[in-house]
Design a protein that fits this description.
The structure holds three protein chains of three kinds. By secondary structure, chain A is α+β, with helices and mostly antiparallel strands. Chain A has helices at about 1-25, 30-35, 55-70, 70-75, 85-90, 95-105, 220-235, 235-260, 270-300, 305-335, 340-350, 355-370, and strands at about 110-115, 130-135, 140-150, 155-160, 170-180, 185, 200-210, 215, 260, 265. Chain A starts with a helix and ends in a 6-residue tail after the last helix. By secondary structure, chain B is of the alpha/beta class. Classes of the chains: A alpha+beta, B alpha/beta, C alpha/beta. Chains in contact: A-B, B-C. Chains B and C meet through helix 3, helix 4, strand 7, strand 8 and strand 9 of B and helix 3, helix 4, strand 5, strand 7 and strand 8 of C. Strand 13 of chain B pairs parallel with strand 16 of chain C.
């Protein structure tokens, strides 16, 4: 019923404007209001803070269905009660921080972004260089962040900073920073290959003073964050790939049924039938992997290996399926009057975000070599 | 005032139905099922009456197999207060359904019973009118506007050639047309709440209703397909074809 | 065996739908009686006597029958039905409103919107919006039937010489009163009985644009219709809607302009004898059912067609 409901909302409200949002680089913020009005903003926020306290599996289904209609909206949804920031606050935040932020996020009134990457530290979190130095009851922050999704819309930011001069991961923690804090600036929109409408921008800090109680993860406490991120590797990133790939196959199938060449519908050509079948096999394999991972995550049994296997496969599957969708639709597949080229562009970044597929292969190999995996 | 709404589980509106090759019916195995769209409108109207303070309780009723529970849960998630399933695996035809609904109406004593004007599977367009006959209540079919005041319902009906308005006494049966309202979405918090709302189960036997079908379906076939014609070059060619080939003008 | 046909009329005359229903009754076979229920409808009763193949007209004239309220008319039908093997009405909004109420009171499972008669107890009716045709057999003593009028060619309105018999209407039920009627004003023929229909869809772009279709409809003496998309967009009134949930039409000529041909629309017009489609999208599904397709900008093509017709 959750899937039916969100699918209906997403197909009726989000899909029609998806192409224009991409073309105009305009984050579809009105969709967040639709989600909030129908109770989909507070999905992962605990009930005592006005949310629904839903599990990882439901969250993944919702993300998949939103992405099937509009990937940019799914990215923005990460800034509401379903995204990583509120889950981090709920898991490790002080009561004061929870009370301050969570109820508003659950209503869709407060938009959050989180920021990890820096110009010189992407997947290499231990190399975070943005500094927060204690000064009385405040921290003074200096440095910059890159590729922060939702930055142009967010009211509050969860930012990974170096709280302690200890090198490597041990010195890294996280702090909440509100928009408008003096010394904090959101930069210009960053234009990437796809996902044009997520308000992605860099963040700049120059002697930005933030109260000490805003520290949400003290130095060295990153393990906790990574546990939540492991769940997010299932909920966020690949579920969007799955949704977009599903839309690509669905639309390609509809197109090839209608389109006639040489007097026959395209689907009557066996070469094309096989291609469509391969797309379905690939898509369903990815879906099965991801659902299994999400169920494990919901049961608290997700291993880093499960998360990495699902992420890598679904990221790469979505590239193959959206690429094939273009191919079977011919020149129309390339045209921006059809959604196929957008699907192709939109999924590309997910194999780089949230840990590149190579980093994840490294961790898969590490688990194997450590003996944590039996084939 | 209590409102009852009846709900049918049907093949989803978006599914393109396929006739079974043995001609016994249409394929319903592994097909997505949903609430009949006209029934969604019925639920919505009842909820709006409750929100306006006219109605105090909305009860959703469905007749059919156990799987109808799912459809009733959807009604509860839309906002109905409780649900009743009259459970049977027998094929139900409109006369039987209206007898079952009459039995439920006798127990529940609603002032208003809202029914979809037709189900999109058998397209019978009978149940509401039959229920009105069996209860002896007034009926307003194909409603596009409903106002309740002073113990009466004023209903605007979509009829051939325009709209007709009637004033009927309560209790009454209303059947919904498309433009009565636009149903809301099922919201996530309401899906959660729906799980805890009461859903009672009755049986035709317990209600003392004989539901044996009166119509026997001998066969179901696909309608003959219309063949695509030809494209014509311009307006002149079109008018020429219509005049001299098709001879319709 | 005698059959009773419930007439659709306007007080002065008989509607085409009645003639199609008489045709269905004739297919079943037996003596055909027609019930004219109404108030001050003597003209209609007279007209009914002239319908080919009708032997008797039952005329019930009473104020409480004036607006064809279901409670009163159903009670009248139930009182008469016992002498008949079949009671038929056209599947008009009146027929659909009244007949199931009468059927339930007769403990008969109505057979809705038949399109063909196989035998006196076996009929064909569309299900799933016309995507399937079911052949059903009734075991009820009195068969209550509504007739999809497009399934039967009308019998002649002239040539019959039936007798009129007055029947007494039951008292007013007191459950329902008529308040008013809003008739869509139109000089054009009625959509469901017109020989030619000109329909516009979402491609028209606005209600204003429908004016473009008027000269064409005028020239052809056509009724005007619309797709659900055009109705939902508010371009035209809802009783213009042709389709699964609107009117079912089967004219000699149906001209679909700016209509893509969603399955729900096709369900309402695919039995038309000749279908013409004008649409700028050559892939539009409407072309798969159209006998003649014209691809291009409707805002240019429609005036050109009118110009050609004037030649």
């Amino acid at each position: 019923m959750i899937r039916d409901s969100i699918r209906k909302i997403a197909q009726e409200h989000f899909k029609p404007g998806a192409a224009a949002a991409d073309r105009e680089y305009r984050p579809p913020v009105e969709n967040i209001k639709v989600l909030a009005d129908n109770g989909f903003a507070g999905v992962a926020i605990p009930e005592e803070y006005g949310g629904l306290g839903l599990g990882v599996f439901e969250l993944m289904l919702i993300m998949e269905e939103v992405s099937r209609a509009c990937a940019n909206t799914a990215m923005l949804m990460g800034g509401t009660g379903g995204g990583p920031t509120p889950r981090v606050i709920a898991a490790v935040g002080t009561d004061a921080l929870k009370k301050k932020f969570l109820p508003k996020m659950a209503k869709g009134e407060l938009f959050a972004a989180w920021s990890m990457s820096e110009p010189n530290a992407g997947s290499d979190v231990g190399n975070v260089q943005t500094k927060a130095i204690r000064d009385g009851n405040e921290y003074v922050i200096n440095g910059s962040k890159m590729w922060c999704s939702g930055a142009q819309l967010a009211d509050v930011f969860l930012v990974l900073v170096r709280l302690d001069p200890t090198p490597g991961m041990k010195g890294v923690g996280a702090i909440m920073i509100e928009r408008g804090t003096p010394g904090f600036e959101v930069g210009k929109h960053l234009d990437l290959i796809g996902l044009h409408a997520t308000g992605m921008a860099p963040l700049y800090f120059e002697d930005c003073r933030v109260p000490a109680e805003n520290v949400i993860i003290p130095a060295g406490g990153m393990r906790k964050l990574f546990e939540i991120l492991d769940d997010d590797r299932v909920v966020g990133n690949p579920s969007i790939c799955l949704g977009v790939a599903s839309a690509a196959l669905e639309d390609a199938l509809a197109y090839t049924r209608e389109r006639k060449q040489f007097g026959r519908a395209l689907t009557e050509f066996q070469g094309l039938q096989w291609k469509l079948a391969d797309m379905a096999i690939d898509l369903e394999a990815g879906r099965t992997l991801l659902y299994a991972a999400a169920r494990k995550a919901a049961a608290g049994q997700l291993t880093p290996m499960d998360a990495s296997v699902a992420k890598v496969y679904v990221n790469e599957m979505s590239q193959r399926v959206t690429n094939s969708a273009i191919q079977v639709c011919g020149a129309y597949g390339l045209s921006n009057e059809f959604p196929f080229e957008r699907y192709y562009r939109d999924v590309r970044g997910f194999a780089i975000g949230y840990g590149t597929t190579e980093i994840h292969r490294n961790s898969i190999a590490r688990e194997m070599i450590l003996g944590n995996y039996k084939p | 005032m209590k409102a009852l709404v009846s709900i049918k589980r049907v093949v989803d509106y978006n599914v393109k139905v396929r006739v079974k090759s043995d001609g016994t019916g249409v394929e319903t195995a592994n097909v997505k099922m949903s609430m009949n769209p006209f029934d969604e409108i019925a639920v919505e109207e009842a909820l709006r009456l409750r929100e306006a303070g006219t109605v105090t309780e909305v009860v959703a009723v469905s007749c059919g197999p156990l799987a109808c529970q799912e459809t009733l849960r959807t009604a509860l998630a839309l906002g109905a207060d409780r649900a009743i399933l009259v459970q049977t695996d027998e094929e139900l035809q409109p006369l039987a359904v209206s007898k079952l609904l009459k039995a439920v109406a006798d127990k529940e004593a609603p002032q208003i019973f809202i029914v979809g004007k037709q189900a999109i599977d058998d397209d019978s367009n009978q149940t509401g009118q039959m229920l009105a006959a069996l209860t002896g209540w007034s009926q307003a079919t194909f409603a596009s506007k409903l106002k309740i005041a002073d113990g009466k319902a004023e209903v605007t009906r979509e009829v051939d050639g325009g709209l007709a308005t009637i004033r009927i006494s309560l209790p009454a049966i209303i059947t919904t047309d498309l433009r009565l309202n636009e149903p809301r979405y099922v919201t996530l918090p309401n899906i959660m709440k729906a799980k805890k709302k009461p859903l009672d189960t009755l049986t035709p036997e317990a209600l003392g209703v004989d539901v044996k079908p009166r119509l026997k379906t001998l066969k179901v076939v696909e309608p003959s397909k219309r063949k695509a014609g030809a494209k014509v070059a311009d307006a002149a060619a079109l008018v020429d074809k219509l005049r001299n080939e098709a001879k319709v003008i | 065996m005698a059959l009773l046909v419930i007439a659709e009329h306007d007080g002065a005359g008989i509607k085409q739908a009645t003639l199609c229903t008489v045709a269905a009754a004739a297919k079943i076979g037996g003596e055909i009686h027609v019930l004219v229920a109404g108030h001050n409808a003597a003209g209609a009763a007279q007209a009914a006597t002239r319908i080919a193949g009708v032997s008797k007209v039952l005329h019930a004239d009473a104020p409480q029958l004036g607006e064809f309220l279901a409670e009163n008319v159903a009670a009248l039908i139930v009182g008469l039905a016992k002498s008949y093997s079949h009671v038929l009405a056209p599947a008009t909004s009146n027929g659909k409103d009244v007949m199931p109420r009468a059927a339930a009171l007769l403990d008969s499972q109505q057979i809705s919107e038949i399109v063909s008669v196989e035998s006196p107890d076996t009929f064909v009716r569309p299900i799933y919006a016309g995507n399937a045709l079911a052949t059903v057999q009734s075991s009820d003593a009195i068969k209550v039937i509504t007739v999809r009028t497009t399934g039967f060619d009308a019998v002649s309105a002239e040539g019959g010489s039936a007798v009129i018999e007055s029947v007494v209407a039951p008292a007013d039920s007191g459950l329902s009163t008529f308040v008013g009627r809003e008739v869509s004003k139109s000089e054009r023929p009625e959509l469901t009985s017109a020989r030619i229909v000109v329909s516009g869809g979402r491609g028209m772009g606005s209600g204003e644009a429908f004016k473009l279709l008027e000269p064409l409809a005028d020239k052809l003496g056509a009724a005007m219709g619309a797709s659900r998309a055009a109705v939902d967009a508010g371009y035209v009134p809802n009783d213009w809607q042709v389709g699964q949930t609107g009117k079912i039409v089967a004219p000699d000529l149906y001209i679909a302009i700016g209509i893509s041909g969603a399955i729900q629309h096709l369900a309402g017009m695919k039995d038309s004898k000749v279908i013409v489609a004008i649409n700028k999208d050559e892939e539009a599904p409407i072309f798969q059912v159209a006998d003649y397709g014209l691809v291009g900008d409707l805002f240019q093509l429609v005036p050109q067609v009118v110009e050609e017709l004037n030649k």
